[in-house]
Please model this.
Amino acid sequence: MAKLLTSRDLARVSCSSCEGCGECCRGMDDTIHLDPYDLYKLEKHLGKSFDELFDVRIGLHVEDGLVLPHLLMSGDNVACTFLGPDGRCGIHDFRPGFCRLFPLGRRYEDRSFGYFVVDGACPRPCTKVKISKYLEIPGIGIYERYINTWHYFCRDVQDQLRASGDEEFIQRTALRILEIFFTAPYDTDRPFYPQFEERIAPFI
Ligand code: SF4
Ligand code: SF4
Model:
């Protein structure tokens, strides 16, 4: 298995020949998952609530008992609703973390994670770039700590749900987490991370 990379490492991921290919924005079904920070950014930049985005831009799927959001695909070419006719992303500056990551993946091990390049994911030739520069996320350190916390929080809850086997408890927990982290509007005049800490504090 290839060695995991950190955001300080270089990786061959920058497809400078992109030019509206848009292949990674079509036919993705429910796989472009959204985390709470993605929701915060969509609310902030589009000026819309979760409820207004739901079923138009965002769908919900079940993942090991949790109900979590993803970007919707629609139309004849089953494309992300943010993909423009020119093959360009209409929300490039505040696109979700999954979109920024592509064609990188994250592998989680020992309560931490590292990056790897998904072989053959991008059909165009890619050049080497530092991962933190490629992701273009301000405060990469705090972002990575948040991503790790969110991932392991979800994983721990999923383990509890699986162990409980109690359908009523699973549904109640899933809806509570959906509401706390996604459907309850964020204050977009305040930074995201303190709000995330407030929301997750009762659970840890
Ligand atoms: S598949 Fe590769 S070249 Fe095409 S839009 Fe996505 S990242 Fe760019
Ligand atoms: S948000 Fe932008 S980059 Fe992400 S799938 Fe949609 S069009 Fe593509």
About this structure: The mean pLDDT is 95. The radius of gyration is 17 Å.
